[in-house]
Structures are given as C-alpha cells and as structure tokens.
Write a structure and sequence with these properties.
Protein name: histidine kinase
Helix content: 40-55%
Keywords: ATP-binding, Cell membrane, Coiled coil, Kinase, Membrane, Nucleotide-binding, Phosphoprotein, Transferase, Two-component regulatory system
Subcellular location: Cell membrane
Number of helices: 8
Catalytic activity: ATP + protein L-histidine = ADP + protein N-phospho-L-histidine
Strand content: 15-25%
Shape: elongated
Largest sheet: 5 strands, antiparallel
Structural class: alpha+beta
CATH architecture of the largest domain: 2-Layer Sandwich
CATH class of the largest domain: Alpha Beta
Distance between the termini: 66 Å
Enzyme class: transferase
Oligomer: single chain
Order of helices and strands: HEEHHEEEHHEHEEHEEHEE
Low-confidence stretches: 1-7
Length: 371
Amino acid sequence: MSHSIINSSTIKDHLCKLITESTANFLVICDESGNIIESNIAAQEIVSRSITDMNITDIFTSDIKLDDYLSSGRKHLLTLKSGSANAVSMYFSFHKISNSIAVFGEIDLQDSRNFEKCLIETNRELANVSRQLNKSNAQLKKLNDLKNSFLGMAAHDLRNPIGAIRIFSELLLKDAAKKSLDSDFIYKLNTIGSQCDFMLRLLNDLLDFSVIESGKMQLKMEDVNPAEFIEYVASLSKLGADKKNITLKVNLPESVKNISFDSQKIQQVLINLITNALKFSYSETTITISLEETNDGIVFSVSDQGQGIPQEELGCIFEAFKKASVKNTSGEKSTGLGLAIAQKIVLAHKGKMWVESKVGQGSTFFVFLPN
C-alpha cells in the first residue's frame, strides 16, 4: 500500500518526539486517508496486534468519519477492536499535523481516579466480609464439633440399654416357645426385638458418622485379595437374600492382584450396598456383585433388578439422612446414613463412589479403590 510521506523534516522530528514521549498512551499517525503510517508500542499492546498498514477506521468497533472528528476539536469515547477477549474503551482526540493526522487515546483521569477509589472501597469491604466469614466458619466448626461429640456420646450411652432390651426379648421368646404361649404375645416380642435391632443399627451409624465427621476415622490398611474378599462378603449376605427368594450372583475375573485397603471398612461399604439392593428388590430377581481390575485400581459393583432411583434424586443420594422416594419391598427400615457413611469411607481410601440407575430397571452402585 502506498502512503503519503511527510516532507518537512521539522514535522517528522516533531512526530517522532510525540511517539517516543507518549509510550504510556495510545498514539498512531496516519495519512489524510486514514492509512496508518506509524504507531507506538502502547497502541499495539492495547489492540493486541500489529496495526501498521491498517486504516484508522478499521481499529474501532463503530464507524468513524475522520473529517467530523478533526473538526470537532474535542475528545470522543470510542472502543477499540482488540485482538484479546476484552474490548478497550478510551477517550480519543484527532489532530491534523501538516498532511498527516495524529490520533491520541487515553483513559480519562477522573474516571481512573473514581475507579481506583471504588476498587479500594471494594477491597476494604471484601476484607471485612472475609473476616466475618472466617469468624462464622470458626463458630460453625465449633458447633459442628459439639454436635459430633454429642452424637457420639448419646449413641454410645444408648447402645447398652437397648442391647439389654434385645437380649431380654430373646430370652422371653425362648420361654414363650417352651410354654406354648399365644401367637399374639410372640408377635409382640418379635416386634420388640426387630425395633431394638433397628435402633442398634441407627446408633452404630450415628457413632460411625460422628467419628468420620470429626476427622477421627483411622484406616487399618492391609493387603487383600479382592476376589476372595467379594466371595466372603457375598456369603454374609446370602441368608438375607434367601429370605426374600433373591439370587446373589458373583462375577469375578480369572485372576486379580492383591490391593491394600481397610477390609473391615470396605466390608461395611459393600454390606450396605448389598443390603440396600435387597431392600428395594422384589422376590425372584437377581443381585449381581462384580469385581473388575483397572490400570489404576479395582472397581466393585452391586447391581440389582429393583425399582431404580428417579434421575432427580441421584444428585443427593449420598447425603446424610437423605432417602430416595422409592419404597422398600418388605417393610425394611433405613437410617438414611448408610450411603453417606459408605461414601466417606471410600473417599478416605482416595477412591470414588457413584451410581447409575433407571426407574423400573434397577440400580448399580460402583466403588473404585486405587492401587
């Protein structure tokens, strides 16, 4: 592209001086047609690209007419087309110098001062809010610690008397069988026993939850053969499955390497998943317990052919005291803590736990444990 050349050496020197002394502000020199001849470093940095060989009208987001801006003699707020994600707005003035045009851009100083004052005030307010949040968080932590301590003490102290009631109800059932007492009396004793069992499960869950929440859970890591472990856990659940005429199926790989985890804690996790599957499955269905070895660990899964969990409830299924809307199939009770405890145990192993479910088709819970 051919440009007009400034013939006067005095004008050239003057322009060069303006360019070198205005590095902090936007400055370009263009000919009378608007073709850019020269620009300072600040201009190129602000626009985030080289603007030499462009026309001055091409670097603004709005259409401009040079003659109008030259004759106005005042500053105009214009927005530059920036090569970066952020558009830049500045105050521009246009000056005719010989057969060239100088275009200056600057941030309004008053706006800059106001912005700086707002920024200082905002930072001050953020600091105050941060202090208040830290204070509130400290208070909440203290209350949460007190809650966990209370739960732990209450659950521990209640287990003994409820355990005693359970034992006496069993003794009374044995006496009732010997004395051939009426069925209504035996039904009442069985109800006492089942309610005690439920209360003991709830208290144990509360104890586990309070220990985990307080950060005092300790893992006893040991080398375990996952296949043998799965078979053992499945055998513990066989009686419950037989009572509901549900088939327990175990899928294991031909060979699998030992892996380190707390066997008692992971047994608690899998027993919870299998028990839940039994609760929400109908008779003559199948629950499948599977093991898969991956490059970085193992995956246990428990899959049922039950009712499934609605999609909108999957996001909160692992929260404490949350229960799905689906009903169990034989009147079994739930504390609402089992899955929350199970997930925290898995997370303590640096693992992951998730669920896939379709209403009417069943659910599959997965547990990943790393090597």
